[in-house]
Amino acid sequence: MFRLDGKKALVTGATGGIGKAICHFLINQGAFVVMSGTTLSKLEALQAELPQGQTAIMPCDLSDADSVNALFDRAEHDHEQIDILVNNAGITKDGLAMRMKDDDWEQVLSVNLSSAFRLCRAAVKAMMKRRYGRIVNISSVVGAMGNPGQVNYVASKAGLIGLTKSLAAEVASRSVTVNAVAPGFIQTAMTDALNDQQKERILSGIPMSKMGQPEDIASAVAFLASDEASYITGHTLHVNGGMYMG
């Protein structure tokens, strides 16, 4: 099930913990994956981990609108077509709203939301012509429930959910699906940096009493990218151990 043989995917934020898992999972399901990230050396290291001939790398600075606008078309030009777009890249610049600088607000919205919109805009033009496509946007549990000290990040992730719903309605008649995955707390380098007290506080709010693994997110992405999910669109799939049940 959930096979992706013959499909080609573009994944942003490919070198992060969740991004790597998504790339591994899509490839294991048979897809060819174009991996995008900011740092070429990290992309090359990730490519070396994966089966030869199943990947390509395409660096892109997602804070640069011109580079983002060109990314999807570059991927299609080099690899004939892209069937699956996974908007996974994201940054944080946390702080209380009353002290947040304009630059910290704008950079997070630019990378997390505006770049996803620009890639979606390019993708649907090609996908609608072919009457097939899968777009999966990686949101967050905090985009649904909020989180103090992260107004910029939360706004960007909530915005992705709204973008997903609206775009899904626009392109559904052409067999293009647009969905979101909203991770809860996932064990990555970011959560590994938390101290024991912080981890205990987080786990107390998770009914399953454990953090998720990157593979939990990757399997959700693979499902939504597959033909088995062809009648699901505009949906946000929450993967959070019961932390949020909205």
Automatic annotation (TrEMBL):
Name of one Pfam family that matches: adh_short_C2
Catalysed reactions, semicolon-separated: a (3R)-hydroxyacyl-[ACP] + NADP(+) = a 3-oxoacyl-[ACP] + NADPH + H(+)
Pathway: Lipid metabolism; fatty acid biosynthesis
Molecular function terms, GO-annotated: 3-oxoacyl-[acyl-carrier-protein] reductase (NADPH) activity; NAD binding
GO biological process, one term: fatty acid elongation
Keyword Acetylation (UniProt): no
Keyword vocabulary terms for this entry: Fatty acid biosynthesis, Fatty acid metabolism, Lipid biosynthesis, Lipid metabolism, NADP, Oxidoreductase
Quaternary data: Homotetramer.
Protein name: 3-oxoacyl-[acyl-carrier-protein] reductase
GN (gene name): fabG
